[in-house]
């Protein structure tokens, strides 16, 4: 069991590109953490620093409370699996999986036993003598995973583990990684640009933009309690209502809305302009007559799109367009007035930009 | 085109090439056995074993020369690989200030006649006691050889995916293991081709050997020139065959690295 702590990590490349800036994260033992962000945000650089393949310009990395900065990659108890599998082409599957043990000088009999165990774990028993190029993409990925796990590392680092796979293989691989991780209880950190992947796989997400961690927490918080509008937008948020805080209420036009939790907004905007956000799937739809009840607003339907699983509506209220994701059997005519409900516990204030 | 016709055409071309190359050796073989061969005779009028018995005579000067040539070419190959590996890696994998200048300087010996530089080097070698010695000859051979080895290895490294090394390090490979299990297999075809070039270029040096060796380091090309200018055609022809033999053998042994899938890049190419 190994907790990983990143303390004020900084990485400036030789070309002066400031890839990672002041990243501090405490990753609890035995959990899966996703480093999420658009390409070039510094997430892979961070992963390589944890692996020991890149040296931080500043800051410290602790495994189980001890700094590992002085340890080269080959001596760290963290193993990284790269995005492109990178199976060694001159070796067969068995030799690839057993590579880490061979480097440690383990005897051949011990290696063969462990290789067979690991191949069984990734459901590739009997593939020992195959060559990497004879395997499908999904099988290569599983061999790479077995190879990374054979030395029983304390920290498993995965760079975009699912990005090179087809949709159905992705599902399968996701389940495999989750099962293996639960089974082995290994502290896992993976890099991804896909927020859906991060949400499904990770216990917690560190969202990075421009080399900085923007928000760190459980997946749910990114949907319901984003820290900024940029974060909300990255997670598919599209509803941002300008509002003014006066006393206990947030005013949108002539209507006062109640918000259950205000986070840090009360301190930063005691009485001022904010933006209220709410997930499209949390907006309630009802008869226009209900407007006037608590947290109900009048709106006019502007667009309606049937997506098969849902009906996606664009409605206008107080001069702003909001997206509403309604059940698929909802049918409302365009230009009809409706009532929309913004439940206080789903409504979340953001600093105005 | 149907495949049978294509195949027979392909084999005809191959046969023509082999025959074309071998036919060049026919006069040499005939000359080496001739005793008298004068115009207008199409074939020699008398044959003899004289040339070959001279060459195979244990006391003949051919054997020390052959050994010299072999030792020099082998040493030159080893040294050029030792220089070419780090240089090729640096040029192939990294961008750095002044890289173009370094590349130009490395290419210089292939543009400027080496002989021009060799006279200056000769003076230096005399001062440091390197002239008239085997080591001096080896060092001067490195001038025409090294550019080719560096160029071949840098082109190999230019297509080498460094992430394989990072992956291996992360899996626990120490530096020497990295070289042995990852780098070496990846660059092996290039190493073979580079060694072949190095050996053959050194093997066929005449002027540099003569100049720096000062006649004290007899090699096959030096002997060959001596016999050729003395007008002993039978001996010259026999010695030519001895000279060509090892180079041709080496080429045949390494041919599979020069063609097809194995050519130069190996399998560690970038994805």
Please give the count of helices of chain B.
Answer: 12
| Helix percentage of chain B | over 70%
Mean pLDDT level of chain B: 88
Count of β-strands of chain B:
2
Shape of chain B: globular
Give the spatial strand order of the biggest sheet of chain B.
Answer: 1-2
Beta-strand residue percentage of chain A: 25-35%
Output the strand order for the largest sheet of chain A: 6-7-8-3-9-10
Low-pLDDT stretches of chain B: 263-271
How would you characterize this protein structure?
The complex is a heterodimer of chains A (353) and B (271). Chain A is built from 10 helices and 20 strands. Chain A has helices at residues 43-51, 93-97, 99-103, 108-121, 137-149, 167-184, 195-201, 219-224, 229-234, 265-268, and strands at 4-12, 18-27, 32-36, 58-63, 66-67, 78-81, 155-159, 187-192, 204-209, 212-217, 240-246, 249-252, 255-257, 273-277, 284-286, 296-306, 310-317, 320-327, 337-341, 348-351. In chain A, helix 4 crosses helix 5. The longest helix of chain A is centred in the middle third of the chain and has 18 residues, at 167-184. Chain B has 271 residues and is mostly helical. Chain B has a two-stranded antiparallel sheet. In chain B, helix 7 crosses helix 9 (175-203) and helix 8 (163-170) packs antiparallel against helix 9. Chain B is globular. The model of chain B is unreliable at 263-271 (pLDDT under 50). The interface between A and B is medium-sized, with 27 and 20 residues.
């Amino acid at each position: 069991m190994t907790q990983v702590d990143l303390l004020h990590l900084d990485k400036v490349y030789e070309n002066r590109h400031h890839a990672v800036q002041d990243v501090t994260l405490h990753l609890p033992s035995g959990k899966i953490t996703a480093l999420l962000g658009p390409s070039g945000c510094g997430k892979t650089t961070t992963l390589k620093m944890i692996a020991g393949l890149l040296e931080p310009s500043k800051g410290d990395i602790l495994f189980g409370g001890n700094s590992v900065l002085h340890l080269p990659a080959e001596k760290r108890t963290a193993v990284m699996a790269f995005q492109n599998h990178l199976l060694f082409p001159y070796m067969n599957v068995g030799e690839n999986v057993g590579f880490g043990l061979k480097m440690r000088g383990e005897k051949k009999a011990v290696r063969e036993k462990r290789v067979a165990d690991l191949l069984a774990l990734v459901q590739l028993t009997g593939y020992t003598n195959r060559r990497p190029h004879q395997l499908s993409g999904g099988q290569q990925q599983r061999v790479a995973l077995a190879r990374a796990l054979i030395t029983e590392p304390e920290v498993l680092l995965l760079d975009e583990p699912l990005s090179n796979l087809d949709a159905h293989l992705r599902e399968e691989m996701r389940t495999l990684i989750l099962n293996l991780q639960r089974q082995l209880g290994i502290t896992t950190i993976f890099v991804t640009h896909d927020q859906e992947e991060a949400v499904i796989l990770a216990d917690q997400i560190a969202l990075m933009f421009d080399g900085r961690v923007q928000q760190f927490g459980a997946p749910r918080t990114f949907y319901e309690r984003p820290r900024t509008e940029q974060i909300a937008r990255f997670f598919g948020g599209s509803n941002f209502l300008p509002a003014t805080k006066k006393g206990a209420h947030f005013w949108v036009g002539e209507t006062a809305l109640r918000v259950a939790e205000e986070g840090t907004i009360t301190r930063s905007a005691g009485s001022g302009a904010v933006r209220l956000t709410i997930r499209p799937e949390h907006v309630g739809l009802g008869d226009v007559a209900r407007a006037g009840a608590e947290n109900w607003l009048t709106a006019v339907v502007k667009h309606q799109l049937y997506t098969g699983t849902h009906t996606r509506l664009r409605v206008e209220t107080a001069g702003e367009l909001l997206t509403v994701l309604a059940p698929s059997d909802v049918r409302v005519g365009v230009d009809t007035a409706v009532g929309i409900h913004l439940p206080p516990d789903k409504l979340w204030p953001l600093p105005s930009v | 085109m149907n495949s049978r016709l294509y195949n027979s055409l392909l084999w005809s071309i191959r046969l023509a090439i082999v025959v074309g190359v071998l036919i060049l050796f026919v006069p040499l073989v005939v000359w080496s056995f001739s005793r008298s061969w004068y115009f207008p005779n199409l074939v020699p009028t008398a044959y003899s074993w004289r040339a070959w018995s001279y060459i195979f005579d244990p006391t003949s000067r051919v054997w020390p020369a052959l050994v010299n040539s072999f030792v020099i070419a082998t040493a030159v190959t080893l040294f050029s690989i030792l220089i070419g590996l780090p240089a090729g890696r640096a040029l192939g994998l990294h961008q750095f200030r002044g890289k173009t200048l370094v590349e130009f300087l490395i290419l210089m010996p292939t543009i400027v006649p080496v002989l021009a530089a060799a006279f200056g080097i000769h003076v230096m070698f005399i001062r440091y006691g390197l002239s008239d010695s085997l080591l001096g000859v080896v060092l001067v051979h490195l001038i025409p050889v090294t550019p080719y080895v560096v160029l071949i290895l840098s082109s190999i490294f230019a297509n080498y995916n460094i992430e394989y090394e990072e992956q291996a390090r992360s899996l626990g490979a120490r530096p020497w293991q990295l070289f042995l299990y990852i780098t070496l297999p990846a660059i092996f075809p290039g190493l073979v081709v580079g060694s072949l070039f190095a050996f053959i270029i050194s093997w066929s040096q005449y002027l540099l050997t003569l100049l720096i060796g000062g006649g004290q380091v007899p090699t096959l090309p030096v002997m060959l020139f001596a016999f050729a200018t003395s007008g002993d055609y039978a001996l010259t022809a026999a010695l030519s065959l001895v000279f060509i033999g090892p180079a041709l053998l080496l080429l045949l042994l390494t041919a599979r690295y020069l063609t097809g899938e194995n050519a130069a890049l190996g399998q560690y190419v970038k994805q």
